[in-house]
Every structure is written in structure tokens, then in C-alpha cells.
From TrEMBL:
Alphabetical list of SMART domains matching this protein: GIYc (SM00465)
This protein's name: GIY-YIG domain-containing protein
UniProt xrefs under InterPro entries: GIY-YIG_endonuc, GIY-YIG_endonuc_sf
Gene3D superfamilies (UniProt xref): GIY-YIG endonuclease
Native source species: Mytilus galloprovincialis (Mediterranean mussel)
Length: 144
């Protein structure tokens, strides 16, 4: 029997998601970075590569977890400057960005990690991130 449920197992090692060392390491790295959203336009620290990112308040509440297959910086700019039509972009448009923190991790299979990190955030704060309205992608195919 092959593992097919992405919510319970890691796609790297096929262990239970809460016991996967790689996933825990990436989650800790994502949570440890604290980059002010107000600096996003002028500072070039955010990478122009694929990865997963997190937008949260300075109080630590995770508002949104997303990924980019090509350019994390461009996605964050779209959200923070209100260029996109997603709820997080509409929420942040016109707000003082100094009240928000960004973090990111360069990761190849970011789309696979998105839903799992949304679940981690849900465990951490008791509710899903406010602006993650749809479920993330699953990279596991159903096989029997």
C-alpha cells in the first residue's frame, strides 16, 4: 500500500508530517526570519527565486502562507503593494507595512509544503491563517 494522503505524510521521507526532520527544520527557519514588510520595496534581501513565504503581524499571528515557483520577491511585492486580487493583497493595500513581518525559505517543492505549513500554523495559533482561504496543492498522486 502506498501513502496517498498528503496531509499526514511528508513527500520527502513519507513519515508522519510531525516527525519529518526536514519539514521541522524548514518550518523553524520560516518562523525565525523577521523581515519588515516596510523595507520590501527598497531592500533587495528577498530572493528572486522559488520558495515558500509567510506574512504575519508583529505580534506573531500568521496571516498568510504562500509559495512562488519562480520569484518570491515579486509575489511578496504583489501582496504587500496590493497589485494582486487575492484577499491578502486587498487587506494590505494602503496599510502601514511596518506592522507586518515577512519570512521566506528558498525551497524547490514549495507548493507541496504550503498546505502542510498552513496546518502547522493552525496548530500553533489555533486557527488557519486568516487569508489562506483555499487549501494548498497536494503533490501526491492517488495510487492503489
Amino acid at each position: 500500500m502506498k501513502i496517498t494522503d498528503m496531509s499526514d505524510c511528508c513527500f520527502y521521507c513519507e513519515r508522519n508530517i510531525n516527525k519529518c526532520k526536514k519539514k521541522i527544520k524548514v518550518w523553524k527557519e520560516l518562523q525565525s526570519k523577521k523581515y519588515s514588510a516596510a523595507r520590501l520595496r527598497t531592500d533587495r534581501t528577498v530572493p528572486k527565486s522559488h520558495g515558500i513565504y509567510c506574512i504575519r503581524t508583529v505580534d506573531g499571528e500568521v496571516l498568510y502562507i504562500g509559495y512562488s515557483n519562480s520569484n518570491v520577491r515579486k509575489r511578496l511585492l504583489a501582496h504587500c503593494m496590493g497589485y494582486d486580487k487575492q484577499a491578502i493583497g486587498k487587506y494590505l493595500k494602503g496599510k502601514d507595512l511596518s506592522g507586518f513581518l515577512l519570512s521566506w525559505v528558498v525551497e524547490r517543492k514549495a507548493e507541496c509544503l504550503e498546505e502542510q505549513f498552513i496546518e502547522f500554523a493552525k496548530q500553533q495559533q489555533g486557527v488557519r491563517p486568516k487569508f489562506n482561504m483555499k487549501r494548498g496543492r497536494s503533490c501526491r498522486t492517488t495510487e492503489e
